[in-house]
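DM from R.C. (forwarded with permission)

"hey, sorry to bug you on a friday — could you get me a structure for this? deadline for the figure draft is monday and I only need the backbone to look sensible"
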Amino acid sequence: MAEKTRISWVQATLLLINMVTATLILVVPAITTEAARQDAWLSALVATFGGLLLAFIFTKLQQRFPRENLLQFSITILGPVLGKVVGFLYLWYFLHLAAIIIRSFGDFLVISFMPETPVWVFIIIITILAAYAVHNGLEVIARVNILFFALVILSIVIIFFLTAKDMDFTNLTPILAEGWKPVVRGSLFPLAWIGEIVIGLMILSHLANPGEIKRVYLVTTIGVGILLLQVIIGVVATFGPEYTSHLIFPGLTGTRIISIGNFIERLEALAMVMWVGGAFTKICLVYYAGVYGMAEWFRLKDPRPLVGPAGIILVFFALIIYEHFTDYLKFATVPFPMYTLTTFEGGLPLLLLVIAILRKKGGAGNVQKNPGSNDDSSASTNSRLLEPQGNK
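My reply, with the result:
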């Protein structure tokens, strides 16, 4: 039998922050600025508060079932039939999201750095690397992510400070010139990305101390909000709301204007490191959620045989999911927030929580269970992760 995987609250938090930040800071500043103009930074604050509401729902739900993941407690709450239906919907969400990220990863590299290289090359390479990481398990992904997280945060900070001399903070005024309506509309886009922390419901059952579930979601949401606010203020102050709203990758454009003493110039490599590191973590985590969810749905004891077939499906989806990157941007502006917020990030978790309370399923007291106790046996395949077999 494989060892039970346990991760610390710090590892879980860094995983979720890096997963959300990877794509959030790449395309969301432009989309949010197009809606809220110079008040885009206010949209970031509103999205953060909205994210805290979602985090509250996820926290209460996970605390009632500290040693079960999303697919498991869906069955516990709704029964085997409806629970399987909800589980299937989330499997679609995980695989769809993973395919979008993989394709975006390829498009970013082709558009920004290697236009002569076919996008399928990057799609296949990143999928193979992610499959290897997923096969080795959540703990391996969490450990590798620590390095990627450090690179992403360092890149964001360096880019912000090196572009500070070009910032004009009058570009952030006048405040609320058109009222709160554009601000609220602009907040929906980053909120949809922040809501992706719903994937935590697939990994937080492996926390070494279930009592730290609340801390993970709280720190994650605030951390993502701070990074988003910093990036939006930086690009809008540098380029102005009009120009920012027309950029595809504002953060990358910001690195290209860096010039200090004709010595430090065009630091596109920082943007590439930031995107590649963050995107790899996100792909691995969503890929993991999809594979492990499939294993739970089909009641398989060992999820690893599904890694390869799931990778083939992801490559296929990534190649056909849209024709041009502009199609993705159109999808990300209105359909994506409505699609994710109303269903997978808001609607279904809230519904599950309400039904669990009404039917008295689970309980907040369960969060205090000893993580090493035999009570963990209720999560049948939850302890059989994708890590290598231990010594017998």
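R.C.: lifesaver. Confidence is low (pLDDT under 50) at residues 368-392.
me: no worries. The CA atoms of residues 195 and 345 lie 5 Å apart.
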